[in-house]
Amino acid sequence: MNSFGQKFRFTTFGESHGIALGCIVDGVPAGLKIDLDFIQAQMDKRKPGKSEFETKRSEADTIEIQSGVFEGVSTGTPISMVLYNKNQKSRDYTNIKDVFRPAHADFTYFYKYGIRDYRGGGRSSARETSARVASGAIAQLMLNQFGIKVQSGISQIHTIKSKNLDFDYAPSSAIFALDKEMEDAQKNAILEAKNNHDSVGGVVTLKISNVPVGLGEPIYDKLDAKLADAMMSINAVKGVEIGDAIDGVELMGSQNNDQIRKDGFTTNHSGGILGGISNGEDIVMKIYFKPTPSIFKEQQTIDIYNEELDFKLHGRHDPCVAPRGSVVVNAMASLVIADMMLLNMGAKMEHLNKIYT
Amino acid sequence: MNSFGQKFRFTTFGESHGIALGCIVDGVPAGLKIDLDFIQAQMDKRKPGKSEFETKRSEADTIEIQSGVFEGVSTGTPISMVLYNKNQKSRDYTNIKDVFRPAHADFTYFYKYGIRDYRGGGRSSARETSARVASGAIAQLMLNQFGIKVQSGISQIHTIKSKNLDFDYAPSSAIFALDKEMEDAQKNAILEAKNNHDSVGGVVTLKISNVPVGLGEPIYDKLDAKLADAMMSINAVKGVEIGDAIDGVELMGSQNNDQIRKDGFTTNHSGGILGGISNGEDIVMKIYFKPTPSIFKEQQTIDIYNEELDFKLHGRHDPCVAPRGSVVVNAMASLVIADMMLLNMGAKMEHLNKIYT
Amino acid sequence: MNSFGQKFRFTTFGESHGIALGCIVDGVPAGLKIDLDFIQAQMDKRKPGKSEFETKRSEADTIEIQSGVFEGVSTGTPISMVLYNKNQKSRDYTNIKDVFRPAHADFTYFYKYGIRDYRGGGRSSARETSARVASGAIAQLMLNQFGIKVQSGISQIHTIKSKNLDFDYAPSSAIFALDKEMEDAQKNAILEAKNNHDSVGGVVTLKISNVPVGLGEPIYDKLDAKLADAMMSINAVKGVEIGDAIDGVELMGSQNNDQIRKDGFTTNHSGGILGGISNGEDIVMKIYFKPTPSIFKEQQTIDIYNEELDFKLHGRHDPCVAPRGSVVVNAMASLVIADMMLLNMGAKMEHLNKIYT
Amino acid sequence: MNSFGQKFRFTTFGESHGIALGCIVDGVPAGLKIDLDFIQAQMDKRKPGKSEFETKRSEADTIEIQSGVFEGVSTGTPISMVLYNKNQKSRDYTNIKDVFRPAHADFTYFYKYGIRDYRGGGRSSARETSARVASGAIAQLMLNQFGIKVQSGISQIHTIKSKNLDFDYAPSSAIFALDKEMEDAQKNAILEAKNNHDSVGGVVTLKISNVPVGLGEPIYDKLDAKLADAMMSINAVKGVEIGDAIDGVELMGSQNNDQIRKDGFTTNHSGGILGGISNGEDIVMKIYFKPTPSIFKEQQTIDIYNEELDFKLHGRHDPCVAPRGSVVVNAMASLVIADMMLLNMGAKMEHLNKIYT
To answer: Which DSSP category does B30 fall into?
Structure first.
C-alpha cells in the first residue's frame, strides 16, 4: 500500500507534521556510487519557499542516509533515508480539526479509517512526495550510468500553453517552464490566482531519452500502465497521456501510425511505447494537475458530525502545485524506468547466458 | 506480469492463434452464485463480427469454466475459464512473418524477446481481452450483490463528441454510443474510415455508481492509480482522465473544488475520488483509444533484418477499437473495484471486530 | 494464494474431480526449447497406479500446452498447461459428503469457506500436485541449460532409514529409494501398512548440485526460507530441514562450522546455504511427510452438523505419499531455483552492465 | 526482498554498525491502541547483555515511533520505528575486513554483491532481528485484542531436552527455558560451550493459542508454509517442524490422525493446521537453531583474494542463539498470524456482507 515497484522498490512513511518522513529503497544493485550531493540537489528542487510562486512555508528537507551504503557505494541492502520535520510551525489546528476541507482527502480518510491526523493533511499531505524525490534520486543515479535522461517541466498553467518545449531551459526557471516565451504569462497566471486567494491547475510534460528498447512487461505491467500508475499516485494528478493520446483520437490511423525506417521511427505519436514496451524513441508523457484544493475563499463543507458550515482556510499553500510537481514526476519516472530495467533482465535466455555462464 | 489485482487477482494466457485463451481468477469469495449465462452475455458483447462497425472476423467466444465452482457456487478456489480458438481461418502469414507492422507491438516484442508469434499479433492481439471480459464478469457478479453498477460507452469518435451521456442507452447501440443524437454521426465517422481503408480513434466514458466510501489504498494503490493502471493496460489506450482532469487544468480552485453538503457533494469534478479513495459519488473516467494501428493503406516499415520496405496489410480489423473496447473498460473497472473492496477489508479494527469476535 | 514464485511464477487451478487441472507458468525466459516429452516424462513419474506401493487409481495425466510456445520454443509469454480429468470413476460420494475425514482438510475448508467440493478432496487433493510437476518440468528445462541438477528420493519409510544415499539409483526404484540395501525393508513397511488398512510416513532427501553461488535474496526471500515455504506447501509435508539442522543442534559450533579452503568447503553441514544465499556446495534438504491421512480403519469424527460418528473410509489411496511426493519435491525445488536465478539478476551493477551496455 | 507479509507487511533496514536500524510496518488496521511500553518490553527481552548466557555486548535498543500513530492510536498509515546504534564500540575490523568467517554469510554476500559491509556482520547480523521484534510487537498488540496468545521458549540446548513444556514459566527464565527441571542442565551446556570458546545449538518450541479457525490461504500461502518461511528467515534457523512432523514419520496413519469430537480434536499431532488452514487447536511448532557460527577457536578459511589462512575470531557473541532467538520466533509468529487474519477477510461472501451491507 505504501510501496511502489517490484524489484527496484521503495516504501515511504511519515506525516506532514509527525517526527519524520522517509523511505526505504530496496533492490538497488550493489556497486552503485551513491552521491549524496546529487540526492540533496533533487530534494532542494522540490523544497518549498524558493520563490513567490510557491508556498512561503520553509522546509529544510535535509536528507540523511541510514543504511545500505558503505564507503559511498550501495551494498545491495535496503537504503533508508529520512527527513526530520524540524522546522515546523507549532500551529493551532483547532479550526480544521473536525472539518473536511473541500477537494482534500479529509473526508475520505476519515470514513475509511475512522481516525485522521488532521495536522497539515497528515499522510495525504504533498510533503510525502519528498520521500519519493529521495528515492527517485537513487534511481536517477542508476539511470545516469546508462545515459538515460529523465526531464520534465511545465507545459501549461491555467489556459496558458507552452508552444516550444525546451527541457534544458526548465531547470533554470522558477516554475520549471519549458517555454521561455510563455513563462511570464504562466507566472502571471499563478500570481493572479494567488492574489485572488485562489489557485490554478497546470500540466507537466515528461521526456525520457535514451531508453533501452524492450522495457515493459506485458500484459499487466506495461511500461505505459506503470507510468500512469506512478503519476496518478502523485497528489493532485487526475489525468495522464502517453504521446499524443488525446489529440490522437481525432487523427486517422494513417496519420497516427509512426512509420519505421532503418534509423528509427519517423514520428513519435506513440510516445516511445508500443504494446506496452519501449521502442527506443523518447518517452513523452503529459501529466494533468488539478488546481490546488487549498484556497483562501469561503467554501461550503461539513464536519465530522455531519453538520454543514461555511469554511475559510488559513495558512500557506502553493497557488499551483504543478511546478514543484514536475520534480516529483521526474522522480517517479526514474523509479519506474529503474524497476523496468531490473524486471526486463531475464526476458530471454540470452540474458541468463550472460550472467550464469 | 500476466496477472492483475492483489486479492481479487486474475492471470491470463493465450495467443490469438494458439489453441486456447483463458484466465485463472483467484481470490473470488466463496459463496458467490456463478451465473454462466451472465458471463457468456458479457463475452458476447465483446465478440467481433456483430455489425458493420466491427471486424467481420467471427469468433465463437464460448466460455468454459474448469474449476472453482461447485453446484453453481464459488468455493473460494481458483476459477479457471477457457476459450478455444476453434473457428480460426488457416491463414497464410508469410507476408507479415518478418515485417514489423507500424504502430503494432511487433517491433518491441521482437527486440524484447528475440522471438515472436507473428500469427495475428500473438500475445499482443486484442483477442487477449476476451479473458479479461470473462474475469470481469465474475467481478461484476460480486459487485451486483452490493448494488454497484459499472457502465460505459462511447463519448467520442474521431471529432464527433457526445453531448448527453445516457449510460442506459449504450447497451442497445451497435457502437455502445452514449448519446443517441450523435450516434449516427459517430457511426458515419467509423464507416468513412473503413471505406478509406483507414481507422479512427475514440473515447470511452466510464461511470461506476453506488461505490462504497473508502475504497483505495493510499499512497501507492490509490483507486485512481489502479484504475489508470488497468485502463492503460488495454490495447490501444494511451490516455486516461479521472473526473474533469483535463478541463480542470483551466479552472480555478474555487471552481474545481467540490463543495460538501450533508447529503453529498454539490459537484463531481473530482470524479468520485479524493486522495485516492472513493468518496461515494459516481466514479467517472474517460479512456482515450488511439486509431486502430491495422489499416489497409501502404505504409513504410522495416523487417527483422532491418531492411526497409513499403508494406500493405490485408485482413479484417475493427476500423475503430473504442466501441468493443468499452466492454473491456467495464470488465477492468469491475475487477479493480472488486479488488479494492477486498483490500479495504481490514482498514480499521472495526472490520476485524465484525469478523473475529 | 494459488501462485508461487516472483519472477518465474506459476499459478495452478483445478479440483480432483472437476473438468481439468492445470497451471499458467509466467516469466519463463524466451528462447528456451520446450521439450514436451521431457515434461510428460516428469508427469509419468508422479502419476499413480504404477506399482503395488501406490494407489491403484489410474490417471492418464496427459499434459497439453495451450500457449506461450511457438515452434517448440518459449516466447516469453505465459505457458498454460492443462490435464483433463477424463478417466475418473463416477463414484458415489454420499458417505463423505457431510463428514470431515480425520487429518484431512475437510474440516478447515468447510469452516473457512462455508462450502466444500467433497469429491475426492476437491482442491486439497494431492492431484493438484500434478500441475506443480508440469510447471516444475519447465523450470527443470531451464536449469538443464546451466548444468544444475535437481535430484531426490526416499531416505526413510516409517522407521527404516537409508544409510547410503544414491541419487542416481532412485529413478529406477519403484519407491524412488535412495539406498538399494534398505529398499526392500522400506517397501515391506509400505505393504504391511497397506495390508493393515493403514498408512506410514516417510522422508524425502533432496540434492541440488552445481548451483551458482549467490542465489537467495536476504533478508526475507532467503533461499532456505523459500525452499521451506515451497516444500511445506506440498500435501502431507509437516517438517523441513536444511543440511544437518536437526542433528546439528547437538553439535558444537566448532563441529558444525564448515571450514573453507581454496577449492571449496571442507564439509557441508550448512546444506549449501549461508545467510540465506547459496554457497556453491550441494543444497541438501530433508522433507518429512506424515502418514497418509486416508486409512481404511474405523475412526471417530463429526459431520457438518457437528454430530459425532464412527467413520470408515473406502476408496483407493497411497499407503505412503512420500515416494510420489519426491517427484513433487523435485518440481518445487526446480521452481524455487529458477525463480531465484531470475531474482538474482540485477543484484549488482556488473549484471546491468552486461545487459544494458 | 526486505519485506515480509502481504497485508500486514513490514520492511526492515539497517546494518549492525550503521547509523540506525528500523522498520516500516504497513497495513496495521486503524484504531489500534499502540502501547509503546509494551513494544519496548519486547525489545528488552531480545536485547543482549542481560545475563552470562548472552553476549556481553550491550545495546540500548530504545525504539522510537516516527509515524502512523496519532494520539496513541494507529491511523492506518505506515508505522515507522527506528533504533539508533548509539552505543557501538569503535572497534578495529582490520582482521576480518577481507576474511570470510566460517559458517557466516561473509562468503555468500561477497560473491553475490561484490561488496560487503564487514563491520559486525553488516546486514546479515542478528541485530537486524531487533526490527522484527518491534514489528512483531505491533502485531502482538493486534492479536491481544482477540485473545490470541503467542508463546515460546527453549525446549532443547545441545543434547539436553525439556520434558515438560511450561510456556508460562519461560518468561521468568534467563534462557527462556520451558522446563524448570532441565533449565540448569541447559544453562550449564551453554556455559560449558562458552568456557571452551565454543558454541551450541538449541531448539525453540512455539505455541499459539486461541487461533481462529480458517487462517491460511491454500495452496501456496498455507499457514504452515508461511510460518516455515518466517522462521527459516531467522538467523541460524535451519529446520522447522509443525506438530509432530518428525516423530510422526515413524507413526502409522491410525496413530497420527487426530480424531474429531464435538468439542474439538482428541489429539494434536497436526499442530493445529490441516490442509494449510488453522483448525482451532493450538499451533505448535519447533524451530531448530544451529550452534552460533562465531566461536573463538582457530578455524580454516580463505580471504577475498582466495588465499587460505588460519583464523581466530575475537569479540563478544552469544554462545547459543536459541534463547534470544525465541523472542524473534514470537515476533515472526505474531506477524504471520496478523497477516493471515487480514488475508482471510474476504474468504467468503458472508465477510463482505458484514462490512459492505
So the answer is: B
CB–CB of C203/C265 below 8 Å?
A: no
What are the grid coordinates assigned to A316, written together? 500557506
Helix (H, G, I), strand (E, B) or coil at A296: coil
Question: Can you state the angle between helices B129-144 and B322-344, rounded to 10 degrees?
Answer: 50
User: Model pTM?
Assistant: 0.98
- Nearest Cα residue to C226 out of A27, D6, D108, D230: D230
**Residue D62 contacts residue D261 (beta carbons within 8 Å):** no
Cα A50 to Cα B129: distance, rounded to the nearest angstrom: 48
From B196, B225, B254, residue closest to A232, measured CB to CB: B225
Q: What is the dihedral of CA A27, A33, A36, A39, to 10 degrees?
A: -60
Any chain A CB within 8 A of the CB of B263?
no
**How many Cα atoms are found within 13 Å in the side-chain-facing hemisphere of C184?**
1
Burial B315-344 (b: 16+ CB within 10 A, else e): eebbbbbbbbbbbbbbbbbbbbbbbbbbbb
Rg (CA), chain B: 21
Rounded distance between C-alpha atoms, residue D67 and residue A122, angstroms: 10
**Residue B2 forms contact with C (CB below 8 Å):** yes
- Where do runs of H (alpha helix) occur along A117-164? 129-144
Helix axes A322-344 and C349-356, enclosed angle (nearest 10): 80
For CA atoms A205, A209, A211, A213, give the dihedral sign.
positive
- ipTM higher than the 0.85 cut: yes
Q: Enter the DSSP assignment of B18.
A: S
Radius of gyration of chain D (CA): 21
Nearest to D18 by CA among D111, D98, D131: D131
Amino acid at B246: I
* Chains A, D: CB pairs < 8 Å: 145
C225 and D CB contact within 8 Å: yes
Amino acid at the residue D231 = M
Tell me the residue ranges of DSSP E strands in chain B: 3-4, 9-13, 20-26, 64-65, 69-70, 73-74, 79-84, 149-157, 160-161, 202-209, 237-242, 260-261, 264-265, 273-274, 277-278, 283-289, 298-302, 308-312
Each residue's pLDDT tens digit, B251-274: 999 999 999 999 999 999 999 999
Do the Cβ atoms of A113 and D75 come within 8 Å? yes
* D322, D288 contact by CB (below 8 A): no
pLDDT digits (tens, 9 = 90+) for D118-131: 988 899 999 999 99
Reported as type and span, the H/E element at residue D113 is helix D106-113
Chains with ≥3 CB–CB distances under 8 Å to C:
A, B, D
pLDDT at B90: 58
| Amino acid (one-letter) located at D256 | N
Contact A29 C346 (CB under 8 A): yes
The residues pairing with A183 across neighbouring beta strands, listed in sequence order, are: none
Amino acid at C182: M
Compute the nearest-CA separation of D144 from chain C (Å): 22
Q: What is the DSSP letter of C126?
A: G
Q: Give residues 316 to 345 of C whose Cβ lies within 8 Å of A.
A: 341-343, 345
Q: Could you give the domains of chain D? A: 3-356 (3.60.150.10)
Exposed / middle / buried, residue D263 (Cβ in 10 Å: 0-12, 13-18, 19+): exposed
Longest dimension (CA), chain B: 70
Given this model, what pLDDT does residue B36 score?
97
Q: How many CB atoms lie within 10 A of CB C169?
A: 16
Contact C67/B122, CB-based, under 8 Å?
no
Write phi, then psi, for D190 (nearest 5 degrees): -70, -45
Q: To which H or E segment does residue D312 belong?
A: strand D308-312
Give the pLDDT confidence score for residue B33 in this predicted structure: 98
Mean predicted confidence (pLDDT) in C337-357? 98
